[in-house]
Specification:
single chain; mainly alpha; Serine Threonine Protein Phosphatase 5, Tetratricopeptide repeat; 2 domains; 11 helices; 83% helix; 0% strand
């Protein structure tokens, strides 16, 4: 019994240490101090190596570090950081195949690296494994929205319209499953605003606020659009 008590105490202390390091890492991450955040998340990983959220935090930090390196013109460092980020996202998903943030992060990484096909395949595979979940649908809608923006900047208007329609289909599927999903309303508002449908965008933003009033940026956006 004493041995079990000691083991339980060690596990408890390990969990507390991991939580403290994670909180510290999140604070540094929010301040864009990615090296300090990585040190904290790596310490949390040592204390609890099987936590998929810790693996995701490490991946996301490498991901943001890569973007920062690119902004500074250091392509070699960015490439290495992107590769490490992808590895940790994949390890996270190996432990938790439904980790929404890891799917979102890895698909965004693929888009950063101009590999839209890999991003789409990642998300559609997730969708096929979880056809009743709203999370893959939301991410597929975001993916098509991003492609729509790329097509618009390149003057590919027909492809942009196809992407917009696909995004709307996935968002409507979300609302069929969860009629008050504020993220779907918000995304529909963005799509309508970008297409020039101001009244439709304001309508969707109001629905998003009714579902979740804690969105001050939408209140401000509605004010701008209705002036």
């Amino acid at each position: 019994m004493r041995g079990l008590a000691v083991l339980f105490l060690l596990l408890l202390l390990s969990g507390c240490a991991s939580q403290n390091q994670t909180a510290e890492g999140m604070r540094f991450y929010g301040q864009a101090q990615y090296d300090a955040a990585m040190n904290a998340f790596q310490a949390a990983y040592k204390a609890n190596p099987n936590d998929p959220n810790t693996l995701y935090n490490i991946a996301a930090t490498y991901h943001q570090s890569a973007r920062a390196s690119l902004r500074l013109g250091n392509a070699a460092a960015a490439q290495q950081q992107y590769e490490l980020a992808a590895q940790y996202y994949q390890i996270c998903l190996a432990g938790d195949s439904n980790h929404a943030d890891a799917h979102r992060g890895l698909s965004a990484l693929y888009m950063d690296c101009q590999n839209g096909e890999a991003a789409y395949q990642l998300l559609i595979d997730w969708y096929n494994r979880n056809p009743v979940s709203v999370e893959p649908k939301l991410e597929l809608a975001r993916h098509y929205h991003e492609f729509m923006q790329i097509c618009l900047t390149q003057g590919r208007t027909e492809e942009a319209q196809t992407c917009r329609s696909a995004a709307e289909i996935y968002l409507q599927q979300v609302l069929q499953a969860e009629p008050n999903n504020y993220r779907a309303f918000r995304a529909l508002g963005f799509l309508k605003e970008q297409s020039g449908d101001v009244a439709g965008a304001v309508f969707e933003y109001h629905r998003a606020l009714q579902a979740n009033p804690q969105q001050k940026d939408l209140e401000e956006r509605i004010t701008v659009l209705t002036r």
